[in-house]
Structures are given as C-alpha cells and as structure tokens.
Amino acid sequence: MHKSYYAIIPANIRYDSTLPPNAKLLYGEITALCNEKGYCWASDSYFAELYKVNKSTIQRWFKQLEDGGYISRTVVYEEGTLKIKHRYTYLCEYPIPKNEGTPIRKNEGDNNTVINTTFNNTKDIPYVEIINYLNDATGKKYRSSTNKTKTTIKARWNEGFRLDDFKKVIDTKTTEWKSDAKMSQYLRPETLFGNKFEGYLNQQAEQQPPDPYDQLF
Questions:
Q1: Residue 136 sits in the same domain as residue 175
Q2: Percentage with pLDDT > 70 across the chain
Q3: What is the pTM of this model?
Q4: How far apart are CA 167 and CA 181, in angstroms?
Q5: Which residue in 201, 10, 193 sits closest to 92, CA to CA?
Q6: Which residues contact 106 (CB under 8 A, 6 or more apart)?
Q7: 142 neighbors 149 (Cβ within 8 angstroms)
Q8: Where are the beta strands (DSSP E) in the chain?
Q9: Do both 169 and 207 map to the same domain?
Q10: Could you list the residue range(s) of the whole structural domain that residue 147 is in?
Q11: What does the alpha-carbon distance between residue 108 and residue 141 come to, in Å, rounded to a whole number?
Q12: Residues 100 and 143 sit within 8 Å (Cβ to Cβ)
C-alpha cells in the first residue's frame, strides 16, 4: 500500500496556518499518487486505512485542501444514482511532472470532465475590491489581507470565476440573508465563497429556499 514515489509539500502549504498538519501530510500523499497516474485515484477508505483514521476525518482534510484552492475534485456517479463510481483529485498549484504515457485526458467514455491544471496568474486577483464590496453590502469589516479569506477567494478564482461573479453572489445572498438574524452571520467570505459558490451564483435573488441551512455545508 505504501508508495515509493516522492511526496511534495510546497512552502505555501507547509506554512498555511489555516491547514492542520495532517491535511498537509495528505496533500503530500496526493502528490505521490498524482506522480503515478497524473491524478489521484484513491478513495476515502484508502486514506483512512493508510493513516488509521475514520473516513469523516479524511473527508474533512480533503475539504480543507479544496477550500484552500490546493486541490480540485471531479466525481463520476453510477448512471441514474448518487453512488460514486470514480473520484479524481487534481493538484491546483505546483503540479508535479506527470509520467509519460499517463496524460490527463478529457471524456474517456464516461463524460468525466477533467480539470485543467494550467492556471491563470493569480497575482491580479482583486481581493480588496471583493472584500470592500462585501463590507459595503453587509456593513461588516472583513479584511482582504487575511490568509483564510485570500485562499478561499483564490480557490474560486482558480475555477474561473471573476469579479462580477463574486459581486453577484454577494448581492444575492445579502438580499436573502441580511434581514434574517440567524442567517446574517453567514454573510462572510468562508461561506459565500466556499464550495457552494456556483450554486449561489445561479440562484435567483428573489427566490427563498425553504430551508436555507441546507445550502451552507
């Protein structure tokens, strides 16, 4: 089970104070498996057995890496069901060289779309403008320089979303949640710009979901 490939943990991950040490270790294991096939194919059960923890712990580490913009995942379900058939994990930054003969391909007969690991230059991400827009809309005082906020925004930026998308999500969720005492606390970067971002973006501002808590996590 233990792979002989080198594991790589870049400096930005090693020194990311928002990541627990074991999530960083998991990232290293993912790089080793990506070096083998060009992507990480292993399941939660594989990692749970490897590190002697339960699957929920592995899932939490994966989410932390994904929220930070360090990995992306594609899930293929069995036709007509919600049962996972395959899961592919890709590195979002500092991709390691892929073995010859194992290129990442698109649509290999199962309509699985593979994430492109060529990334846009992130130096021009408008962190300040996004957070200022959020603060103006909500009356809050979030800082654009906070590492957790920047990594969350960068994760969505790496997926191809741009300034107008962030503004639309802010407008939509502010309209929906600001007057709700319980929900207004979620008008924050880690919620608005997290894994539900695309769903928020495509939500009609005037529609009110029957149970908004279902959308948070």
A1: yes
A2: 76
A3: 0.45
A4: 22
A5: 10
A6: 113, 114
A7: yes
A8: 71-77, 84-91
A9: yes
A10: 127-215
A11: 47
A12: no
